[in-house]
Amino acid sequence: MGDAPVRLTLEELYGAWNAVPNTFWETLDHSHSPRSREMLYDKMAALDCAPGHHVLDIGCWAGKHSCELARRFGCRVEAVDYLPAHVEQAGIFVEAQGLADLVKASQGDIHALGFPDGEFDFIWCRDMLPNVRDIRRAFVECSRVLKPGGKMVVFTDLETELMEPREAARLYGDAMWAESMSPGSVESAIRSAGLAILERDEVATEFTEWDEEKGGDVMATEFLRIARMMRSRDMLVTRFGRTLYEAELTGSLWYAYEVLGKIMPVVYVLSK
């Protein structure tokens, strides 16, 4: 996250506020050219994913990314997810997209993948590593099912030094795991599994900025929802239940912590 923040005196603080040049705000009010989520597919394209390749999508959710990989690159995709409801959704989506000849959805656990050694040319792992309870075992399994020279594209969120322990405990609950959010633990697990880090690309707030610039008021809406959830907690819990309230608050806070730099979205490109 760079250097530690400067501790300003009272005179320095108000001196800066009183003398801030218009060009400072003008600089911030223009786009800083953020990348969109399309860059994740660009990573696969750069690895020359093509027809005939076999790709494993771990944590496929409803199968959207699995289908997009098959559509863009003509590859065969095994779409696996730990939750049966997600596998059912993915199967329906694959059929609706007319891609059943290229994409197969099934239940699977990253800790014990039901595939032979060296089965896949590529692994696509997006937005799921924080939910992995044993990050070392997970990368060992990924390495096992990759062919020698195979590649893995991982998009995940990591803690930064700005995340406070009580914030992390509140945010993660029993669904996320601190070790799987730790940059040191994740990168140690990658290397101990025999995988090399070819690229580490810190996305930071780029996707959020892109959404805001293209869609407008995305951040304002999210922060307004957080404010209302915090202020109207009792009413919302009574009306919708504690589980739904906590799940939605977790998602919104996750977004806010990314904006505040407490969580860092990162793309890794790995090689066996």
Order of helices and strands: HHHEHEHEEHEHHEHHHHE
Helix coverage percent: 40-55%
Oligomeric assembly: single chain
Main pleated sheet: 7 strands, mixed
Spatial arrangement of strands, main beta sheet? 3-2-1-4-5-7-6
Give the name of the CATH architecture of the domain at 38-205 and 261-271. 3-Layer(aba) Sandwich
Main traits of this protein?
7 strands; Rossmann fold; alpha/beta
What does this structure look like?
By secondary structure, the protein is of the alpha/beta class. It has a domain at 38-205 and 261-271: Rossmann fold. The chain is built from twelve helices and seven strands. It has helices at residues 10-19, 22-28, 38-46, 64-73, 84-96, 135-145, 165-172, 183-192, 206-215, 218-231, 233-240, 242-259, and strands at 54-58, 76-81, 103-107, 120-126, 146-159, 196-202, 263-271. A seven-stranded mixed beta sheet has the order 3-2-1-4-5-7-6, with helices on both faces. Helix 10 crosses helix 12 (242-259). The two termini are 29 Å apart. The mean pLDDT is 96.
